[in-house]
Amino acid sequence: MEVAKVCLLLAAFACSAYAVDYAGTDVIDLTPSNFQSRVIDSDYIWIIEFYAPWCGHCQSLAPEWKKAATALKGIVKVGAVNADEHKSLGGQYGVRGFPTIKVFGANKNSPSDYQGQRTASGIIQGALDAARQVANGRLSGGGRSGSSRGSGSGSGSGSGGNDVIELTDSNFDELVMQSGDPWLVEFFAPWCGHCKSLEPHWKSAATDLKGKVKLGALDATVHTSVAGRYGIQGFPTIKFFPAGDKSSPEDYQSGRTAADIVAFGEQKALESVEPPKVEQLVGQEAFDECGQKQLCTIAFLPHILDSGAAGRNEYIATLQAMADKYKSRPFGWLWSEGAGQMKLEESVDVGGFGYPALVTVSAKKLKYSPLRGAFSKSGITEFLQGVTIGRGSTLAMRGSELPKISTVEAWDGKDGALPEEEDIDLSDIDLDDEPAKDEL
Description:
It contains 13 helices and 16 strands. It is of the alpha/beta class. Strand 9 and strand 10 form a beta hairpin.
């Protein structure tokens, strides 16, 4: 038993003695937490080894890799990723064997495989060739290309016409979850071909939807906390976060052209618009504000003594349902108690139709259209559909001017009460004091 323990200890010592170790050298240790900032976001050329500590070929390469790192210091960055420990980073770049060497040149989204000799001189030559290519590209007008897909600005206005907002683990909750705006968020990987194909469409849609829906992009290979929260497993994954409760985002399943994305965003923007509230017409200010709309829809409801609170609330609920349905239209919505605004009723000839009654008023044109059908959801829908396409009767307001609106007390939401009759005291009247009448 003791012999077996000694053998195990000697084996462990032997493995640790030959394991790859770059600590204290010019080789830069890279991990998922620093790869984005050190490599992808930098202007340096990088040559990176993906290794496993137990790999014999990696152990043979290690001294040559260290020599190359020292010789290339200040010229090309030399890094190493323990892909056995950081499997996600190795998987991101399709590493299947060890060691794998990749050169991150002008386009860091598409690193190239190093196929040269695995000696210090061969590695140095490969790194310098990559640096020469980048320099020649810049001389001819090219530039660096990193993984950043957005403007990096919370304002939604990026340089170079890029209105995509760059999202990270650190700003996601503040910009998306705590905002009152609807968001479309793309979770991407820099090496993903489909993500690269989507990128120009995503940028174009972000510009077209500016002010309606915000478009963001998050590198899910770097910002793994947010990506993990939403179970991102494939790229690109697009999720829609509505203007209100964002706890359960919707998976985007539409097309991936700019036109498809814009159509989806515009529909969601309409759905997220708060519907106008149906207000009681209590004074001139409310009427003037409603008159600024394309159409001001005014309902004249029965007196509270006739309908009661329950009946009135049913009428108002019908109006609110219509306001919700037509919330994308520039309509205003008011109601008034019957005979509460007589000058207004006279100007639109409401009196002859009884209550409830409804009209649409164009304050700018001094025109109105009366509802001739039923005061119901279906009846009002048919009426408004006819008004919006120019069908139905349109009449000039009486007097050729807008009526003055009376100031009235707002309804308290309660049933009406009959006025109390004043008791008459007849105790001081003596009916016997009437003068006698002569009999005929």
